[in-house]
Amino acid sequence: MIVAFVAAAISIVGSSLPAQNLKGEPRVFPGDIAQRRAVIVVTFSKSASDEASEWTRKLRENEQKLAASVYQIAILEDVPALFRSLVISTLRRTIPKDLHDNF
Question: Distance from the CA of 90 to the CA of which of 29, 78, 81, 84 falls in 20 to 30 A?
C-alpha cells in the first residue's frame, strides 16, 4: 500500500528516481517500468530485506496470475558510501542472476 502510494506520488509529481540494477545498468524509476501493471517491493533498511525478499519470491511465483512484472528496490541511502560497493557486491552474489534486471 505504501509502495503504491510512493510510486503514484513520484509519478504525479513528474519526478524520477535515478537507480541502477544489479547488472550495473542505469535505470530511472518509475519511468523505465514499461509494463502497464507492475508490483514494486521497496526496502529502506537491511532489517526489512529478508521479509521483502520473501514477498518478492511469492509474488514471482504468481507473476502470471498477477499479469504484472515484479521489481524489488533496495534504497541504500543510509549505507555509508565506503560500504555501498560491498553491499551491492553481496546483493549480486545472493540474488539469482536472472533477477538482476529487476532488482
Answer: 29
Of the candidates 45, 91, 52, the one whose C-alpha atom is nearest the C-alpha of residue 71 is: 52
Do strands 69-74 and 38-43 pair parallel, antiparallel, or not at all (unpaired)?
A: parallel
How are beta strands 26-29 and 17-20 bridged, if at all?
Answer: antiparallel
Interatomic CA distance for residues 37 and 65, integer angstroms: 12
List the one residue out of 53, 57, 48 whose CA is nearest residue 76. Answer: 48
Grid cell 509519478 — which residue? 11
Does position 84 have pLDDT exceeding 50, yes or no?
A: yes
What would the mean pLDDT of 53-67 be, rounded to a whole number? 85
Residue carrying C-alpha cell 555509508: 80
**Run of H or E including 93:** helix 81-94
For residue 21, give the DSSP letter.
-
The DSSP letter of residue 33 is -
**Amino acid making up residue 79:** V
